[in-house]
Every structure is written in C-alpha cells, then in structure tokens.
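Much of the work behind modern protein science is quiet bookkeeping, done one molecule at a time. The protein below has been through that process, and both of its lines are reproduced in full.


***
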Amino acid sequence: MRAVDWFPLLLSLRVAGIATVITATFGVAGAYAISRGRFPGRGLLEAAASLPIVLPPTVLGYYLLVLVGREAPLGHAWERLTGQPLVFTWQGAVLAASVASLPFCLRAARAAFDGVDRRYEEAARVAGLPEWRVALQVTLPLAARGVIAGVTLGFARALGDFGTTVMVAGNIPGRTQTMPIAVYDAVQAFDYTSAAVLAGVLSAVAIVVLVVVRRLERGAV
C-alpha cells in the first residue's frame, strides 16, 4: 500500500486560494457592472463570462492555450516578463481555475445585486454619497450574503477543476498535479487507497461548501 502523496492537496489549496481572490475581484466587479450599468454589449459581456459553464472543459482549456501559449502574444509577453512560460506551470493552473470558476461567482453576485432594493441606493445618493460609496457602503453590504455564496462556489469550482487545468498546466507530479488530476492518476495506477482518500477530501469540501451556500441563502449564517 503506497503512502498518500499530499502535495496535490497543498497545490490545489494554493491554486484555488489565489484563483478565488482573482475570481472574487473580477466576478463581483463584473456582476455589479452588469447589474447596475447601462452600456452597449452588457448582455454579450454576461454571455461571454458565462461560457465556461457550458463549454466542455477541454475546449475551454484549448482556447486558453491559444491565448496564452508560448507562441501567443499574451504567453510571449508573460515569458518575457517572468522568464518562464505560463503553460505547464502552477501559475497556469491558477489561470485555468480562475476562468473556470468566474461565472459561478459572477452569476451569484449578479443575482444578489439584482435583489437589492434600489430605494436604499437612491436615498444614499440623495444624502450626497458619491457613486463609489453607494456601491461599497450600501449595495455591497446588502448583497453580501449572495456575494459570499458566489465566492464560496467559485472556490469549490476552482478546487475541483480537472479538464481545463490539465490542458493548460499539464499533469506533472510534484509541480502541476492538483487533487482532481491526482485522483485520476491514482485510479489509472490502481492505487485505489490514494484515490479514495483524495476523492473523500474533495467530497467533504464540496459538502461543506453546499451547506454554507444553503445557509447563506436562508440567511442563517
């Protein structure tokens, strides 16, 4: 019986943690812009941000490779800036997890912002608050439960991503092998003990996330 390698768990937590910060930043900002903004292409922006939900993960990973591969302008710029390529690195795994989890955060936050009574915002404007303070001090606190639920879902999605991550970051043990990829590898190697342990950890995280989101939706947290 082989000992369980915990590197994939540590890497997954690192990748998911950083991806969640990125997702929360762009997801919440994008949700607010879509919910409160009135600009051309608003519907197209929301549709584009939601694509990772409906696209197969391998297709999403392929598009990311086209955008950030070593021969692509973005990938070439990253390599010149950092001295290493973005693909087949843990930073590439962060990118993949961020893109895959973004729509989960954005859609939940958008629904939360849509549910805020705009009369509170109008009252704040009448009181003389600038728009940015209305957003930060009125809208965001009132939508906080939904926003937190979206960020939590984004974290779970980033932690569990497989297809997009393996396309962009590869499957390099000790470097880019995250937990979902390690489960796949363990099954392929008939190491069912490691697969069961890692799958159990992922399942436990998923259950905790769902419970937290449910309690947030009911206003119990």
Remarks:
- The CA atoms of residues 59 and 164 lie 8 Å apart.
- The longest helix spans residues 7-36.
- The chain is about 75% helix and 0% strand.
